[in-house]
Write a structure and sequence with these properties.
Radius of gyration: 37 Å
Strand content: 5-15%
Largest sheet: 5 strands, antiparallel
Helix content: 55-70%
Number of strands: 20
Structural class: alpha/beta
Shape: elongated
Number of helices: 32
Length: 961
């Protein structure tokens, strides 16, 4: 991956304006398309497979008039008056008449109608009109809502207070307030302090804002085709902004340090993208995987939120590794820290000389008494997590934002009727098996009324086909109160007895019941999801750090910070501590907050872990000194990690004071979680625990080391590749081997040294197995064991992909299938390498290479010795070899590999003369021959190209000799 990122970084640096224009087009295309499609946001909380959702789906099929969107027009008389007064009643009835005329309204039920429920309060000051629409919330037009609200003027003119509530009046608009802007400004201040340069500080902000814009455009497009909650774009903006700034910060910091040490800007940008960018890609992928893990929970609105946030993170990663290096290419040496500046001194400072940095002073303090700091951190986070034991989960109660008409209607209902009237429950009754419909419905209603926390039970209402009925149940407690959850459970526990007594199965549904089901599903999924995330972190970190202790410690630290953040959130948002200061209304915790927090915080925690510990591992590999590696890695990464954590904290916390109700708790939990994880876990617990573990911190069983893939996140492989690449460039040749060892570690071949010019011939002569291993290695199909080896200017094994594309292997089949022809053989080779835009290989090329091979073979008395239709089985050894070489040359390689049989008849002077005519002068030939074979030197043309010979012998063969 490091090599790929190095190439991407170099390309973006060299083609800066192409990359920038591509990003501008992408941003404009996504935003423009999203705005043009006009997708609407909708807070739809549905959860397939639960009793409440199944009942809603059934009502939509058999009782459609109850399944549409609804609203309430709440009216309140002045003090000392009632809604039953003649003027007030006339106004309410006039409002009903007007509401019935509104386009999209299916039915209106007023407080004085014959079938009205308990729609007038006990003191007769408050009443409400129930409005039912034809379609769902997204089908209700703004014009219909304006017409509904316009009817309120009738009540106002009569001296009544009127407010409108219900799901159609939920605030689903997307907007940012001034406090979120302050978050970005705080981030800018941190960047300026970190870099000491306004130009450098502006780059992470620019890339993050471009990424956020692109992500928002993508979510807007999706909103035009499916349900997207109003929280999804806000969450994507918040996370995308935070990680976008941080990811660019990591890469830019590495780039500026390298520039200060005198590195060329292009090489520095490419290396920064390959090393720091590798950690960014790793961290971003962990966040994306964790967010996409929300799909497993099986809740549609949460899945959309997870996918939207994951898309924002993907865009942030792409911006950091492409757009940022393009900006580095535009500004070039302007980003070099000035000699004598703080940034320049810091980049060139020795670990143990000069003034100690704050990071160095902190890690020295921690290492003086690591046990004390481990106990302190665990104690603090453990205490912070205690409130999480009383975690109460629920969805938003529909009260709306402060100052809105929906909030006013909610409060009028609560004051006039009681809190339960804002969250009525619907009991569906299957009446297909009863003969006394109304009698049984009344009896069922009476039994429901005997339950605790029931304020009112409505009259049973059957549908037109008399197969389903509904009973409205009003709780005494609020929709998000624990007592309401108990009532729902008690109602469901009645189902078996009611079915036995009346033969009428019941189900409980309604918004409140759906919210309770979702909360229960999420609460049940929290621990399994945490275990999945922890397991994933252990596996990923095992691959990165090749240590058992580091992943386990990282996972336990993540759990401490996550549950500590949940505990603090409970204390403030549920218990009400400091609620007034933060503009928080105490109540249940948002049901999907804990699982969303774990998904996001997991990736961020791994981010800090990688940047802190990768430097420690790199130093430990060099020195083997565990304590020194902790100090070295910490002091070099502490400043960047501190800046990244502060930026994330400010960006997240900025959404708390004035943010939308749903996003407020998520933002607070993320801000606290980042602070806990970065400053307490990663920068305190990690160095203390690793100091206690000593060398054991880097222990890994040998069997596990063999199984785990080697993830080169520190760029060790890249540096080796660049050194090899520089060596290859200094000695231009088609094949360059310097003490190269081939084969396997247990069966090495070599060391061998050779240099073959471009267009030359390399003869690999010896035992069939040994020479074929060497030839396959030179073709990039096998990795060398040691030494230095470059083919076509690309070092092996790191440049194997380039070598494989440039070297073709001529497969000389001893036994050809009876029906295969020369044209089919060449067509197959062309088909394997043809461009994606070509449907089939070119017939012209098939004929061209067939004719070239025939010309090289020489014409017989009747013309060419073979054509495209000639069966391969009809060819002799020499002709078959020429056809195989022609098929390989059709791929337009820079070198070809041929291995001839040990049979002396397979290599003749005539064959070498023919190959000299067939193979272009610029194509290098690598040929494997038996010990007794005729040398290609018999051909003056091949000899003029320059022939080199290798005689590989494995150690086992030497022993036999």
């Amino acid at each position: 991956m490091a090599l790929l990122l190095h190439r991407i970084g170099r390309f973006a640096f060299r083609r800066a304006w192409y990359v920038i224009v591509a990003w501008v087009l992408l941003l404009g295309g996504l935003l423009g398309t999203g705005l043009a499609l006009g997708g609407q946001l909708q807070d739809s909380f549905a959860i397939p497979g639960t009793e409440s959702q199944t009942a809603i789906d059934q009502l939509a099929a058999v009782f459609p008039e109850t399944a549409g969107a609804s609203a309430k027009a709440v009216v309140e008389a002045p003090d000392g008056e009632t809604v039953e007064a003649a003027s007030a009643r006339a106004a309410i009835e006039a409002m009903e008449a007007e509401l019935e005329q509104v386009d999209g309204v299916a039915s209106v039920l007023g407080p004085f109608d014959e079938y009205a429920g308990d729609q007038i309060s006990g003191d007769a000051r408050t009443a409400y009109i129930q409005v039912q629409f034809d379609g769902q919330v997204t089908d209700v037009t703004p014009e219909s809502l304006e017409a509904v609200e316009a009817t309120g003027e009738i009540g106002v003119d009569a001296g009544l207070t009127v407010a409108f509530g219900g799901d159609v009046f939920q605030e689903t608009s997307f907007g940012l307030t001034v406090t979120e802007v302050f978050g970005v400004l705080f981030a800018a201040v941190v960047l300026v302090i970190t870099f000491g340069s306004l130009l450098a500080a502006g780059m992470p902000l620019l890339t993050a804002l471009v990424g956020v814009g692109a992500a928002f455009g993508g979510i807007s497009i999706v909103a035009a085709f499916t349900t997207v909650s109003s929280t999804a774009p806000m969450l994507a903006v918040m996370i995308g902004l935070a990680v976008g700034i941080d990811y660019a910060l990591f890469i830019l910091s590495r780039h500026r340090n390298q520039l200060a040490r005198g590195q060329d800007p292009e090489e520095s940008a490419a290396e920064a993208v390959a090393t720091a960018g590798g950690a960014v890609v790793f961290a971003g992928l962990t966040v994306i995987i964790a967010l996409l893990g929300l799909l497993v929970v099986g809740i549609p609105f949460l899945s959309v939120m997870g996918v939207g946030a994951a898309f924002a993170v993907l865009i942030a990663v792409a911006g950091a590794v492409t757009l940022l290096p393009a900006l580095l290419g535009v500004f070039g040496r302007k980003l070099v820290p000035k000699p004598g500046s703080r940034a320049h001194r810091r980049a060139n400072a020795d670990d143990d000389s000069g003034k100690r940095t704050m990071g160095r002073r902190w890690v020295d303090l921690v290492l003086k008494a690591p046990v004390v700091f481990v106990v302190l951190v665990v104690g603090v986070l453990g205490a912070a997590a205690v409130p999480a034991l009383s975690l109460d989960l629920n969805l938003p109660n529909g009260s709306g934002t402060e100052g809105s008409s929906q909030r006013e209607a909610y409060e009028m209902i609560e004051d006039g009727f009681g809190p339960g009237y804002n969250g009525p429950l619907i009991v569906t009754v299957d009446i297909t098996q009863t003969t006394d419909i109304f009698g049984d419905l009344d009896a069922i209603g009476a039994r429901i009324g005997e339950l605790d926390d029931v304020a009112f039970v409505g009259q049973g209402l059957p549908n037109a086909t008399a197969d389903t009925a509904i009973i409205q149940v009003i709780p005494e407690s609020a929709p998000d109160a624990p007592a309401t959850k108990v009532l729902v459970e008690n109602l469901r526990e009645l189902e078996p007895s009611i079915t036995d007594d009346f033969g009428t199965p019941i189900a409980v549904t309604g918004y409140t019941a759906v919210a309770i089901d979702i909360s229960n599903r999420l609460a049940d999924a929290l621990i399994p999801f945490a275990l999945i995330v922890v397991g994933l972190s252990i596996v990923l970190l095992l691959m990165v750090f090749r240590s058992v202790f580091v992943p386990i410690k990282a996972a336990l630290g993540f759990l401490l910070s996550a549950f500590g953040a949940i505990g603090v959130t409970v204390a403030i948002f549920q218990w009400g501590w400091l609620a007034e200061l933060l503009h928080v209304e105490p109540g249940p915790i948002l049901s999907f907050l804990p699982i969303l927090l774990m998904a996001v915080l997991f990736g961020l925690a791994m981010d800090y872990q990688v940047f802190l510990v990768s430097g420690m591992r790199e130093e430990y590999v060099k020195t083997g000194d565990a304590r020194k590696s902790i100090v070295h890695g910490f002091q070099h990464a502490a400043r960047v990690v501190t800046a990244a954590a502060l930026i994330m904290f400010f960006v997240f916390f900025a959404f708390v004071p004035e943010g939308a109700g749903v996003i407020k708790g998520i933002a607070f939990a993320l801000a606290v979680g980042v602070a806990f994880d970065a400053f307490l876990v990663r920068m305190t617990l990690v160095p203390a625990a690793m100091a206690l573990a000593g060398n054991a911190a880097w222990w890994l069983p040998k069997w596990l080391a063999r199984v785990l893939p080697n993830v080169d996140i520190e760029g060790e492989g890249l540096r080796a590749h660049l050194e090899q690449e520089e060596w290859a460039a200094s000695r231009p040749a088609a094949v360059n081997a310097e003490d190269a060892v081939f084969g396997l570690p247990e069966r090495p071949i070599g060391p061998l040294t050779v240099e073959v010019p471009v267009g030359g011939v390399l003869v690999v002569q010896g035992d069939a197995v040994d020479r074929r291993v060497v030839s396959a290695t030179l073709a990039g199909r096998l990795a060398p064991v040691g030494g230095r080896l470059a083919v076509l200017g690309s070092p092996l094994p790191s440049g194997a992909g380039t070598v494989m594309r440039g070297v073709a292997i001529a497969e000389v089949a001893a036994d050809a299938s009876p029906g295969a022809t020369i044209g089919e053989l060449i067509a197959v080779r062309l088909d394997a390498t043809r461009p994606w835009y070509r449907v089939a290989p070119s017939n012209g090329l098939v004929h061209t290479w067939t004719e070239r091979a025939a010309a090289a073979a020489g014409h017989g008395p009747d013309g060419p010795r073979f054509t495209t239709e000639t069966p391969l089985s009809a060819l002799g050894v020499e002709a078959r070899t020429l056809v195989a070489v022609a098929a390989a040359l059709a791929e337009r390689p820079k070198a070809i590999v041929i291995d001839l049989d040990d049979d002396p008849g397979s290599s003749t002077g005539a064959l070498w003369h023919a190959l000299a005519a067939l193979v272009p002068a610029q194509v290098t030939v690598i040929v494997g021959l038996g010990a007794a074979a005729v040398s290609p030197a018999v051909s003056p043309q091949l000899a003029a190209r320059g022939i080199r010979t290798l005689e590989p012998v494995s150690r086992s063969q030497e022993a036999l000799r």
